[in-house]
Design a protein that fits this description.
Blueprint: H1 3-9, H2 21-27, H3 32-45, H4 49-60, E1 62-68, E2 74-80, H5 82-92, H6 96-106
Helix pairs in contact: 2-4, 3-4
């Protein structure tokens, strides 16, 4: 990506001196609120650029859609990516006792 594009996309007040240009490049396509959130998480967790991109990608697999109903109420619908959907379907096919046994091993 072009330096000028990244600089134009991220407000000066959101930039973190402790993070690299590549960190800022990773969040440049996002909204300012999301940029602020992800840059703060990167600082707090000491994430590398690779870790930041992976976290953003994981989050992008789950999304919310806000829908206004006819009675002027707001309803949220949760969606997941096709990739995440196939993993959920596989997990749902696991018998409950097998799932519980595996969870007990992890604890």
């Amino acid at each position: 990506m072009h330096y000028a594009w990244v600089a134009a996309k991220i407000e000066i007040c959101l930039r973190k001196q402790i993070l690299s240009y590549k960190h800022h490049e990773a969040v440049a396509p996002l909204s300012p609120a999301e940029q602020k959130n992800w840059l703060a998480k990167a600082v707090a967790n000491g994430w590398s650029v690779r870790e930041l991109r992976a976290a953003i990608k994981r989050c992008a697999e789950i999304f919310l859609t806000e829908i206004k109903t006819s009675d002027n109420r707001t309803r949220l619908e949760v969606g997941i990516s096709k990739e995440r959907s196939s993993r959920v379907e596989k997990l749902a096919a696991v018998p409950a006792e097998v799932f519980e046994a595996k969870m007990a091993e992890v604890r």
